[in-house]
Amino acid sequence: MIATLQCTVIDCPDALALARFYSAVLGWRVVTDESEPDWVELIDPVTRQRIAFQEVAGEYRPPRWPEVEHPQQMHLDFEVGTREDVERGRRDVIALGATFLHDSGGEKRGFLVFSDPAGHPFCLCYGQEPVVPE
Question: 43: part of which helix (H) or strand (E)?
Answer without folding.
Answer: strand 39-43
